Amino acid sequence: MMVCQVKIRKWALSLFFCLGTLFSASAQDFRFTTNVSSTRVAQDEPFQLQFLLENASNISSFQPPSFNDFEVLQGPSQMQGTSIVNGRRSDYLALIYVLQPKRVGNFTLAGATARVNGENKRSNPVTIEVIKSAHGAASAPSQPPVSQQPFPPRRSSPDDEYTEGILRKGEDVNAKLRKNIFLKVDVDKTNLYEGEQLTATYKLYTRLPTNSSVTRVPAFKGFSAKDIELPNPPQASTERLNGQLFKVFTIRKTLLFPLQSGALELDPVEVDNQVRLVKMVHNNQKRSRDPFEDIFNDPGFKDPFNDPFFDDFFNRPEVSYEDVPYKIQSTPVKITVKPLPADLKPASFNGAVGNFNMTAAIDKTNLSTDDALTLKITVSGQGNVNLMNMPKVDIPNSFEKYDPKVTDNIEKNSNPLSGSRQYEIALMPLEAGDQTIPPVEFSYFDPVAHAYKTIKSEPFNIHVTAGKQNKRDKQDFSVDKNVLIPVHRAPQHWTKDSGYLLGSLWYWILLALPLLALVLGIIYRKRLTYQQNNMALLKHRYANKAALKRLELAARYLKEGKDHAFYEETSRAVWGYLSHKLQIPFADLNKELIQSKLSSRHINGTNTQQLFELLDNCEMALYAPAQSNDKMQGTYQQAVKVISQLEDELKTKQPVV
Amino acid sequence: MSTVRHIILLLLLGCGALHAADLTPQQRFDKANNLYQQNQYSDAARIYQGLIDDGYTLENLYFNAGNAYYKSNRTGQAIYNYEKALLRNPDNRSVAHNLALANQRVQGFTDELPLLFFQKWWIQWEHLHSPNGWTTGSLVLFWLLIGGILAYLLVSRLNNGIMRIVISVVGVCFCLYLFMSVFTYTAAHSHETGIVMSSGIKAKAAPDQNGKDLFELNEGMKVQVLDATAEFCKVQLSDGKTGWVACDEVKRL
């Protein structure tokens, strides 16, 4: 059993070995070398030792050799990069140590071991010859070895920061500051659509030690801004600009969404700097300048101001430092914002720009009017999530709609801004029956494709049953309560509005007509009663006329000589006259009555006598004819005279009734 | 095939629109009803409005116009037409229902106080006859009255106490009818109520464009017009607030 296991292990190992060699062969010229800056060094002289792994992939461990005879001043520092030599690209990883020999003599440093691709590799060993120090050993032991020992110049090192911090003689301070400290605004685009994202980064570039504070931050007028959180305290990175290395501090990084179209401007940022410049003092002139530089070149002094050594160094009388105030401002950046294309803009578009996805769902499809359902709309994607409006949903009238609950889930420090926004709308069914919520539609503008895109959900069919309603609901939840009663389609009786009768002339005419009739009726009635009351009066009034008519007839008979007819007519005229005048019926007439009637009217004397004479004459002539023509003439004259006289008297003397 | 039919239909409709004046009111009414059925509410509303403008002031026409306006989201016009229909017949249940629905759309709508029993009785009494009905009634009664008086005067057989009672009853009825006729006439011509026709109108403290804003009026609100200058009307809301607005914004019933 054991044997078997061992065999398997051996087999596996050999297999791995084979594979390893295969892989190493296939990799591009893997090399693992040890280099030294110098193989012959003085005893107090530091030197550099570099282990270089070229084209190594998957390095899992690294083991340096033992540095028994050397003191490690610094290291290991790691350097990684790519070099292209003669068109061949190679990746390298270098581990650098700075060593100082302890003793004089020949020393061999064994190679370092590294595990590459699961395989142990060893670099070549190097031999170092250490000779006696040229300066003599007098100064060396009294001082800390690090501070005083100048390193060999390493100009190619990436860490040559703050070398400009020394103000050389004759240099202009302002020019120097301008050259070495400035602000820069990076924008990823300057021409974009309304609502499209823009990333603006405000950076401080410096090659000088400085204590800076931001005094004015941009307001971003016309934009909606969302800041990306920056590490605190600010972390510097390095950037090479025109062949010079700068330390770069990011002051502000903001995601901007233009809210309006047109030419907009990013406000400048203002930074107050206190630049610490080192000034050379005259009595220090004789000192070589190299050591200073080398000291500043030391990669260990990442933060020279906090280093006690630094202060110690600068407080020495030979140099002085100065804090120079320097205010800088970034240049404003012009941004051109294009309006979103107006044509083809979908009706459901309400400002989302980016790349989105939308889902809509309801939590139940079967419920009663006592219950409520939730419509959940989630919009997720990249773009102006923070500015998004709710997609329009046409909730039918048969639902009571409550204000949506909005939940934002925006990824922190995402660039481009991405995340999701969720709307939860509670809906209360008001009517029983099968209801349909129309599809939720969401449109956005895709700035990459320069086109509007619309996402549409499925319509939701909901079956609502009548629930146990409380008393309030009796009316509200009845079917068709919230449905408009449809139009009346029955034929109508089409009459135009004829205006108001009351205001028309006809009304008043029709009202006046019966009034007129009434007036006429009243007049007629009055006349009627008058006539009824005065029939006798009328007869009396016409008595004279009737008598005269009779007398005219009598006059004719007189001419014709008909004496009998003449007397008859004359007596009738007189008797008729008296009958009418005195209002005595014709049959009742006699002389006594006439006498009394006339005397009651105070008519006496000659008239009455003549009247009775005339009446006697007539009677006599009637019963004893053969009267002469003259006599007839005299009788006629007498009759006319009597009647007219009597008429006059009766007129003046009204009867006393 | 169906597209061809559609085109023909459209042409017919176009011709119909051209010769709208030639159609009988009933045909126009039916056309509007069909448009309403096809959800072309704005077109339907236009035809109904045309009929109303031509002087046909039927209760059902106002009702249908209100529906069409409601469906085309012109709440102010819808409420105006429903109110017009209600003025003609306050007992019309369907108008009251649809008016209540339309009022739900009015922002800041405050319901009017329910009427007291005698107010209801009065309204029922008022609508016993149409205004012209009252007037015609008064005319007929007047003729009867005069005829009675004449008969009483001229026919001696009718000249008795019973006739006198009959005449006085007819006289009282005539006075009542005349009063109601004048009342309905003045009520119809006073235009004391109006409907606000657009939203977001600021009621001012004085009849002046620069007056202080008091409150806001929204489309469909029913207001009482208390006073008016040439341009401004003093309106009162059902909750008692008063303010001045431009008269153009209020369509009087």
From TrEMBL, chain A:
Transmembrane regions: 505-524
Signal peptide limits: 1-27
Superkingdom of the source species: Bacteria
Keyword line: Membrane, Signal, Transmembrane, Transmembrane helix
Native organism: Chitinophaga agrisoli
Protein name as catalogued: Protein BatD
Chain intervals with Low complexity compositional bias: 137-149
Keyword GTP-binding in record: no
Cited Pfam families: BatD
UniProt xrefs under InterPro entries: BatD
Span list, region Disordered: 134-168
Keyword S-adenosyl-L-methionine assigned: no
Automatic annotation (TrEMBL), chain B:
TM spans (from-to): 134-155, 162-183
SMART domains: TPR
Coiled coil, from the record: none
SH3b domain segment(s): 205-246
Record has Signal as a keyword: yes
Start and stop residues of the TPR repeats: 59-92
Protein species of origin: Chitinophaga agrisoli
InterPro entries associated with the record: SH3-like_bac-type, TPR-like_helical_dom_sf, TPR_2, TPR_rpt
Keyword line: Membrane, Repeat, Signal, TPR repeat, Transmembrane, Transmembrane helix
Range of residues in the leader sequence: 1-20
Highest classification ranks of the organism: Bacteria, Pseudomonadati, Bacteroidota, Chitinophagia, Chitinophagales
Record's protein name: SH3 domain-containing protein
SUPFAM superfamilies noted in UniProt: TPR-like
